[in-house]
Write a structure and sequence with these properties.
Layout: E1 2-10, E2 13-21, H1 36-42, E3 45-49, E4 54-59, E5 66-67, E6 72-78, E7 81-86, E8 91-96, E9 103-104, E10 109-115
Antiparallel strand pairs: 1-2, 3-10, 4-6, 4-9, 5-8, 6-7, 8-10
């Protein structure tokens, strides 16, 4: 199994997706030139977004907390199903964009993390 990090840039935000694949049928590499200032500021930031629309049923974190890979950060309830959102990397929570019991849409920001090497 191989792990790939896909970085998407939207206006002033940078979103990293971590994908694990068993078999790869096609790979296309495209270099994106970012300014040094942008790299320094956003190189270690990761914005987690909601995978589904629903209600935040549990918020298991607080700002400035250090989380580890696989740790459940948020639980989203959608159609009586609880979906855990887990940490993909070791990181420090810098900003929480949602509150417990609030509604979120798919793709909405949940939290911002600073990756710790």
């Amino acid at each position: 199994m191989k792990r790939y990090v896909i970085v998407l840039k939207n206006n002033s935000e940078r979103i990293a997706l971590i994908v694990e694949l068993k078999k790869i049928s096609h790979i296309s590499y495209r270099n994106v030139n970012l300014s040094t200032q942008f790299k320094k500021k956003y190189d270690k930031l990761l914005i987690l977004t909601s995978p589904i629309s629903g209600r935040i049923s549990a918020l298991n974190i607080s700002e400035e907390k250090i989380v580890y890979p696989g740790e459940t950060l948020v639980v989203i309830e959608s159609m009586k199903t609880h979906i855990p959102v887990k940490s993909p990397v070791k990181a420090k929570i810098t900003k929480i964009h949602v509150k417990e019991r609030s509604m979120v849409r798919r793709g909405e920001k949940i939290l911002t993390m600073e990756i710790i090497p």
